[in-house]
Amino acid sequence: MLSAVERKIGQFVEELDDKEVSALYAKLPHGKRLRAKLILKIAGTSLPVIKTAAVVEMIHAASLLHDDVIDDAYTRRSKPSLNALYGNKTAIMLGDILYAKGFFELNNISPEISKMISNSVVQLSLGELKDVSLSKSFNIDKKIYLEMIYQKTASLMEACAGAAALLANKDPKAYKIYGRNLGIAFQMIDDILDITMDTQTLGKPSLHDFVEGKTTLPYIYLYEALDDENKLKLKSLHGKKLSDNNTEWIMLMMQENNIIKKSYQEAKTLIEEAITLMNERGENALSHIAMAMIERDF
Ligand code: FPP
Ligand code: MG
What is the pTM of this model? Predict the structure, then answer.
């Protein structure tokens, strides 16, 4: 029933009655619609559920439009990002429009759902600001990293699962933990893929996050594993364009210290906890979504 969500988003966009916005929206790749899938699997396909899923996907799309401007990212889902195609101003405004329309429609669902989703958007905005601020220095505090990715990524998934449970008259507690764990694991894997994916697709890693100043989980673990001299070397490379030699050195240190496996294991533990929670409730489809996430290599 993901197609019903797609149609609802299309309808919301058409209601804006603006040809430019419709044309820009048509250029946006839809992505996996993971948040909508979660909501549908928890709550079925009634109209309020479809609307909630559509609104959440519009808010998510808006946040990525802004994020690509903030991160100077010129690709999104292997295609040119909207900011690359039309510039930052257009990308920011399309984000604002999708976000505002989503919020308008959220008010037509229920005050409880509206409160849960809107509060998570406050969190995700705070998380994005933290991400930006943290990238100005060499953060090696895992607790701070975890808090930031919870806010930036997991808070919306937690709210999706919680809101869907409310819509389905289920106890939101376990579903919120499920969404939170999935969100944190999702971001951890995203951060791991920034290191490993380029190696597969480009033949060499770009380490884009590290160059941008982001010390994600693998870098935090690597720093912990290195001796004092190499700690200093890693720190000196942070936030700068990397030579091929230095890129190779980071990758070699990652390999020698088993860093990718260790980081991946941390995400896997969260996924396993989420799967156990859902298995206890006979929510097999939700366990499968969690399982697929840990196998994701894109
Ligand atoms: C992706 O992080 C970014 C997010 C999950 C959240 C972005 C949030 C905002 C820009 C603030 C909220 C704005 C609105 C309009 C609701 P990433 O850069 O680590 O992931 P990526 O690899 O997908 O770019
Ligand atoms: Mg980004």
Answer: 0.94
